[in-house]
């Protein structure tokens, strides 16, 4: 129909659709060829192709606001749309608005449910976390694999099967962080253990991955000029190292159905998304503070 038309210049904000969208009134165009807003290139007949004869344009009303416009073309059983068609269109526009409002409402519920699933997974995993291996922690005098611990020759993957908390405490001691801030060894050990308790045992995001990131930051601050370049204080280095250890805390790694399959049904006990969120944050903070 428009194959021989190179360019169409439609007046901005002057079409029937624009008028209905602004005023919210039904426009029944019984004869398009006589309508002042109808574009001649669109309405004219080209080699027997469908021609636009009449149209009925009406708004979609949602919460007393215009949210869309529906346009019907070429009534089949009559020459044009009647007043009865206008009444039906008015009601149909209201129904469409109700459907859109309901869809929007349920979309928000779905988003809240997804957010709740994330937090529920976190709480479910918290219920499956094992306790710390030791009751009291002290900086060890000697450890296996301690050779090259603070050098680039050290391979963190050799730590598989070893108690990472003891090695982390030894590194903090060698960096003079524990003596400098007078941090009690037992409290610090329980704190690190609390971090590991909040890290899931997944194939990639696990305790060893956190230790690898932590060890890299240790070497970065010890063997490069980044400490002087960034003017990092000892407090900032402490924060950076803790952040490296805790980077994967509460990484979900699974869905709520997966947690149910594992036998953890704690998520089903909560019905309020806000309560789940608050409980999750309180659970993490309490676990770290009590470490």
UniProtKB/TrEMBL annotation:
<dbReference type="GO" id="GO:0004114">
    <property type="term" value="F:3',5'-cyclic-nucleotide phosphodiesterase activity"/>
</dbReference>
<keyword id="KW-0479">Metal-binding</keyword>
<protein>
    <submittedName>
        <fullName>PDEase domain-containing protein</fullName>
    </submittedName>
</protein>
<dbReference type="GO" id="GO:0046872">
    <property type="term" value="F:metal ion binding"/>
</dbReference>
<keyword id="KW-0378">Hydrolase</keyword>
<dbReference type="Pfam" id="PF00233">
    <property type="entry name" value="PDEase_I"/>
</dbReference>
<dbReference type="InterPro" id="IPR036971">
    <property type="entry name" value="PDEase_catalytic_dom_sf"/>
</dbReference>
<dbReference type="GO" id="GO:0007165">
    <property type="term" value="P:signal transduction"/>
</dbReference>
<dbReference type="InterPro" id="IPR002073">
    <property type="entry name" value="PDEase_catalytic_dom"/>
</dbReference>
<dbReference type="InterPro" id="IPR029016">
    <property type="entry name" value="GAF-like_dom_sf"/>
</dbReference>
